Amino acid sequence: MRKLMLALAATVVFAGSAFADPVRISVGSYNLNNLPFPVASGLGLYEKEGLEVTVENFASGGSKTLQALVAGSTDIAVGFYDHTIQMQAQRKDVVGIVLLARNSGLVLAGGKNSTFDPAKPETIKGAKIGITAPGSSSDFFVRYYLQRHKLSADDVSLIGVGSGSAAVAALEQGKVDLLVNYDPAATFIEAKGVGKILIDARSDAGAKEIYGGIYPTSVLYATQAYIDEHPQTIQKVVNATVEALEWMNSSSPEEIVQKLPEAFISGDRETYVKAVANAKPIFSVDGRFNEAEVQTPLAVLRSFNDKVAATEIDLKKTYTNAFVDKAPRKSTN
């Protein structure tokens, strides 16, 4: 894992006093929802913007990345939008500055011996369910599913197994009966014959079936204090990210994978390319937050998070399109 962290960091740390804008960016997972971040790095877009970027806490988990941001040990986090809602419920201003993934991309997969049948939700009782980490969106996915079907988290065992190859191994080795995870793990599960996808929220239709609407996930977020103090740095980071999103939208999965650090690619390259192809529809094409779609994670959180349910959440304080709207567009150049 440390080797992977250093490989990614090496692609985005630029030495030299010519770069006036140092910025620390933490990323909590290498699932494909966060893919625009290493793509921006691989394309050299942070360097193009004159940024000196240091990557921290790679693969430490989304909740730990959020903790690092709030503690001030990182400047910007690559994490999930619903964290901004949770932080507002705790009276902390954490703001999404650019949207990476407009849909969750989550799947629920069953191992070879799984007895869970989505047509009979009660059959999930007693299952050991692998999630990326407690407090993650995969955790929310399970809890919301259980609640909708009048079941409780006490009816199952939730086990943090991470993402990528570690998550697939947990399912393959029988450490968990079911796995809720993202690509590339989702694609690897079926490609390697480890199990079968039972619920698929990668498509808009699947997301609406699970959540009742589109569920924006991966974003870049920062504290409001940092945004106020470093607006130029934020703008440069957003500029690079928006350009990466535009490039991804017009590029093939093969071209996208070619721009990634080799250590970032899980499993064999051919299957990873398939995973990128499967995940491609979830990515934002312009980085903008949609006022209607951000209502979905709020509804999910309110269903089981007492603090969020008890707080009057102002969603307009959880994200901003101000920097995205100022980012240069290829289509207008």
> Which shape, going by the Cα principal axes?
globular
CATH architecture of the largest domain: 3-Layer(aba) Sandwich
CATH class of the largest domain: Alpha Beta
Q: pLDDT under 50 segments (min length 5)? A: 1-7, 13-17
- The strand line-up of the biggest sheet is 2-1-3-10-4
Number of helices: 16
CATH superfamily of the largest domain: Periplasmic binding protein-like II
Give the SSE string.
HEHHEHEHEEEHEHEHEHEHHHHHHH
How many separate domains?
2
At the fold tier of CATH, the topology name of the largest domain is D-Maltodextrin-Binding Protein, domain 2
> How many extended strands?
10
Rounded to an integer, what's the Rg over CA atoms? 19 Å
- Measure the end-to-end span: 40 Å
How confident overall, as mean pLDDT? 89
Strand content: 15-25%
Biggest sheet character: 5 strands, mixed
Binned, the helix content reads 40-55%
Quickly give the structural class. Answer: alpha/beta
Oligomer: single chain
Signal peptide: 1-20
Family: Belongs to the bacterial solute-binding protein SsuA/TauA family.
Main location: periplasm
Subcellular location: Periplasm
Features:
333 residues, alpha/beta, D-Maltodextrin-Binding Protein, domain 2, 41% helix
Please, could you describe this protein's structure?
By secondary structure, the protein is an alpha/beta fold. Helices cover 41% and strands 16% of the residues. The chain has 2 domains: 2-103 and 215-332, D-Maltodextrin-Binding Protein, domain 2; 107-200, Periplasmic binding protein-like II (D-Maltodextrin-Binding Protein, domain 2), CATH 3.40.190. The chain is built from 16 helices and 10 strands. The chain has a 5-stranded mixed β-sheet with strand order 2-1-3-10-4, sandwiched between helices. A 5-stranded mixed β-sheet has the order 7-6-8-5-9, sandwiched between helices. β6 (128-131), α6 (137-148) and β7 (157-160) form a beta-alpha-beta unit. α2 (36-42) crosses α11 and α6 (137-148) crosses α14. The protein starts with a helix and ends in a 7-residue tail after the last helix. Residues 1-7 and 13-17 have low confidence and may be disordered. Residues 1-20 form the signal peptide. This is Solute-binding protein family 3/N-terminal domain-containing protein. Belongs to the bacterial solute-binding protein SsuA/TauA family.
